[in-house]
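Bug: token stream looks shifted between consecutive jobs. Job 1:
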Amino acid sequence: MNETPNAYVTRILGCLGSQDPLQVLAATAGRLRALVAGRPLQDLLRAPDSAHWSTVEILAHMADCEIVSAWRLRSIIASDGVALQPFNQNGWADTFRYRESDPALSLQLFEINRAATLSLLNRVDPGLHANHGVHQERGIETVVHLISLYAGHDLNHLAQIERLLSDSATAPVLPSRPQ
């Protein structure tokens, strides 16, 4: 999906709506685990087409995003006004071969890093949540804003996985994505 940084932020925050972002962040790992529990790898590898990710790829993406999020939040909390570098999610997916990743390991990596992030947010001085970073594409982003953005990001991908897995019982297996 090609969209401007502002359109992306609007879309992702729209996924969150009026939900409490910290509650969403705390619930995501459990929701992911419940969605993929007992699913055969074939279901997790199914993608609607070559332009969209499978559940395996989404889980790998979410694990990597949690590492990036943890770094960004720590950087901002420790150094108000720090520069934040963007990353190319599709480039990462190709370079890191998300399709070949182990979904259980991706989920474990996500869970561990998310738990550490939530612990950090709960133990630092809440006044530091007003600190900001300067994202090269999106501009000034406070910790509070990023928490909402990351929660919306979770909900966006949870909905994608729900759709993928609800379709898996009736959808034909698609050929592997061309390399």
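Job 2, same session, no restart:
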Amino acid sequence: MGQYYRPVLSRSQDRDGFAGGVFASMTSWDHGEGAKLLEHSYVGNVLPETVVGVLADGPARVVWAGDYADPEPGGDVLLYSVGGTARSLPADPRPHRFLVDLDRGEYIDMERVADVDGEPGWKIHPLPLLTSEGNGRGGGDFRGDSPFLGRWARDLLAATDTRPAGLAEVVPGFVEV
């Protein structure tokens, strides 16, 4: 069966502060896109660009929560379900050039995101995959091999058009097999 995903955002200072600190949650259906991870995880898709727009307004912790992911620490609550009780933000896609992980001191230059299999215009948006929890447990999940998968989940993220000074650039290079 297919696993459904939703981005869940928190402004908590604590990486595990999602259960009580969710301020936004979105569904792909609200934006006319499919719910499986790779049905909405391409550059130009409304859902990831909407989350980037929120991150441009102020840093937030992000998890692209799968409904097959592990429960939250210390309980049996799925973050995917917690997100369902938070308000959904209206579609306001605003692409920005740099995605920044403030906890790790890393950034991604969106102009360097690779084409999928050399097909111009088909680029996997790194944000959903970098912040995914539960990937590999259902149909529609990312099937490539990358040490960046889920690496930024629960980290404090931001988006900007100004190249971050003093941070390390990373290039995840997500390519599905």
